[in-house]
Amino acid sequence: xxxxxxxxxxxxxxxxxxxNEAQPISVADKVQLVDDLTAAGLxxxxxxxxxxxxxxxxxxxxxxxxxxxxxRPGVTYAALAPNLRGFEDALAAGVKEVAxxxxxxxxxxxxxxxxxxxxxxxxxxxxxxxxxxHGVRVRGYVSCVLGCPYEGKVSAEQVAPVAKALHDMGCYExxxxxxxxxxxAGDTRRLFEVVSAQVPRAQLAxxxxxxxxxxxxxxxxxxxxxxxxxDSSVAGLGGCPYAKGATGNIASEDVVYxxxxxxxxxxxxxxxxxxxxxxxxxxxxxxxxxxxxxxxSAQ
Length: 299
Ligand code: HMG
Ligand code: MG
Prior knowledge:
Layout: E1 8-11, H1 13-17, H2 27-39, E2 44-49, H3 62-68, E3 76-80, H4 84-92, E4 97-103, H5 106-113, H6 117-134, E5 137-143, H7 156-168, E6 173-178, H8 185-195, E7 204-208, H9 215-224, E8 229-232, H10 252-261, H11 270-284, H12 291-298
Parallel strand pairs: 1-8, 2-3, 3-4, 4-5, 5-6, 6-7, 7-8
3-hydroxy-3-methylglutaryl-coenzyme A (HMG) binds next to α4, α5 and β5.
GO biological process, one term: L-leucine catabolic process
InterPro entries: Aldolase_TIM, HMG_CoA_lyase_AS, HMGL, PYR_CT
Enzyme class: lyase
C-alpha cells in the first residue's frame, strides 16, 4: 500500500483542546483562535460542542463562538453534538457539520455520555435523520480505540463493530480516537487492518493523543495503512475531561512538519499555524505543546 499523496487535517484544538481547560477562556480568545487557524489554511476546524454545560463547562459559549468567527468559504466549521438537543442547538447556531461520539469501551461510554454504547448509537439515530433532512454532514468518533482509562487495553475487535455502526447509520467518516494515548505503532496498524474490513480506509481517520509520546509514530503507522485524515490540535492543546491523565492531542504543527518531510500536501502554512499556537499558548499562560513550534520559536 502506498502513502497518500494528500492528507486532510481536522483541527480539533478549539474543541478537544480547550474543553479540558479549567480556567475561563473568553469568547473573544476562542474566536481569535479559530480565525487564526482559518488564516493558517486549515480546511476543517472543530469549533465547539453543544453538550451539557454541567458536563463540560468550557464549551458553554459555543454558539457565541460560532456567531463571532469569520467563516471562509470552503472551510468546514464543525461542532460536537451528543444528542438531538445538541444537534438542534448546533443547527440554531448555524452549524453545517456535526460530529457524534461513541466509545469502544462500556465504562468510558458511561462516564463520558452517561449511557451504554448501544444506547448512544440509538441516541444518534434521530440526529442522523434530522441531519439528513437539513443537509448537515455527520462525522463519527469512536473513543478509547487503543485503551480505556477504566478498562485497560481495548482490542481492535471491540472497535470494529462500533465504527461499522456509525458508518452504517450515515457518518461519512469515522475517526478512531486513542483518547488516552497509550497505543503504539504496532497497535495502530493492527487497528486499521481490522477496522478497514468493516469501514473503507478512505472513510477512516486517526485521532491520536500524545500522552505516552507515541502520537507522531501512530500517524506514520496510519499513513502506512493508507489513512489520509488526521485530527490534531494546534499547540498540542487538549485532553479529555473523562480520561484522567490524558494529555493533549498530537500537535498540528508537528503533523504538518512530518507531512512536509514526506512530500505530502496539506495546504497549511506552517509559520501561520505556529503563530496561532503561540498566541493561544500565551493566552493560556503555558508552554506551547508543539515541539516544532518550540524549536522554531527559540530560533
Ligand atoms: P445526562 O445528564 O445523562 O442527560 O447527560 P440528561 O438528558 O439527563 O440531561 C441532563 C441535563 O443536561 C439537563 O439539564 C438537560 O437539559 C441538559 P437540567 O434539566 O439538569 O438543567 N442537556 C443539555 N444541555 C446542553 N446541551 C445538550 C444537552 N443535553 C442535555 N446537548 C449528555 C447526557 C450526553 C448530555 C452529557 O453526558 C454530556 O453532555 N456529555 C458530553 C461529554 C463530552 O462533551 N465529552 C468530551 C467530548 S468526547 C471526546 O473528547 C473524545 C474525542 O475527542 C475523541 C477521543 O479523543 O477519543 C471526541
Ligand atoms: Mg480527543
